[in-house]
C-alpha cells in the first residue's frame, strides 16, 4: 500500500520510527522501495552526488522534475518527497505554488520539501492550501550555505536553539506535515520532537527524532568527497563497484569477456554465403 502523510502521522503517534532515504533514479528507487523504506527523498543533494557540484545552489526545477519522475516510476509504496530547489520558492508565494505544482504534476511527487522556518511559512501555507503536503527543513539548510559560511552544527547557542524551536513550531502551524532537522544537537532535536505534533526526521540530529534520513550514496559508502560525522556506512558499495569496473576492464583487455555464454548464434551456412 502506498505510504502517505498519514503514515508519518500514525508513526509519530504510535512511537514507530519513520525511515527515509534519498534516491535520484528509477533503479535505485525500486531497490529502496523493495527494501520497505517508508519514504524516498529526491533531495537537491543530487547537485552534489549526481551532478558533481560543490553545493546545491545550481540545481534547477528541470533537474528536480527529471529525477523525481524517474524515482516516482520506481516507488510503488514509498512516499516520494521532492526538494524544491534554490530560488524556486524564496522570491514569491506565486513561484512557490507554481513550482510545487510542477513537482507533483510533472514529477509525480507525493509531497515537496523546502528549507526555512518562519521566513518560509507563507509559502508552506499557500502550498498546503492547494493540497500539496509540505515537509519543512531546519537546522543546517544547505541552500543557505553562503549565509552560514560552511557546514556547521546549528542551534548550539541559547538564541540559536530558541530560534530553531520557534521555527519548528511555526512550520507546524503553517501546515507542514513533517520537518527535517539537519545537524542539530541531539538534546535540542529531542526537545523539538517532544514539542511538535508532526514528525521530525533527523539527519545528524541524534537518536530521538521520529525518523531518520540519509543520502544513499553516503550510507552505501559510494561517496567519499566528504563524509560527515553523522553518516554510518552500512556497506562498502563504492569499493565493490570499483573492483567490478576494474575486473571488467581486465577481462575485456585479456579477451576473457565476453565468453561464449554471452554471445548469440547464427547458422554457419548464412555466414558462409556472405564471404
Ligand atoms: O537534499 C537532501 O538530500 C536533503 C537531505 C540531506 C535531508 O535535504
- The arrangement of helices and strands along the chain is HEHEHHEHEHEHHEHEEHHH
CATH superfamily of the largest domain: Phosphoenolpyruvate-binding domains
Number of domains: 2
Molecules bound to protein: 3-methyl-2-oxobutanoic acid
Largest sheet composition: 8 strands, parallel, barrel
Distance between the ends: 59 Å
**CATH fold category name of the largest domain:** TIM Barrel
Give the structure's gist in a few sentences:
By secondary structure, the chain is an alpha/beta fold. Helix content is 43%, strand content 14%.
Structure description:
The chain is an alpha/beta fold and 275 residues long. It has two domains: 5-236, TIM Barrel, CATH 3.20.20; 241-273, no CATH class. The chain is 43% helix and 14% strand. It is built from twelve helices and eight strands. Strand 1, helix 2 (26-34) and strand 2 (39-42) form a beta-alpha-beta unit. Helix 2 (26-34) crosses helix 4 (61-74), helix 6 (121-129) packs parallel to helix 8 (158-174) and helix 8 runs parallel beside helix 9. The structure holds 3-methyl-2-oxobutanoic acid. Residues 22, 41, 43-45, 83, 137, 180, 182, 203, 213, 215 line the site of 3-methyl-2-oxobutanoic acid.
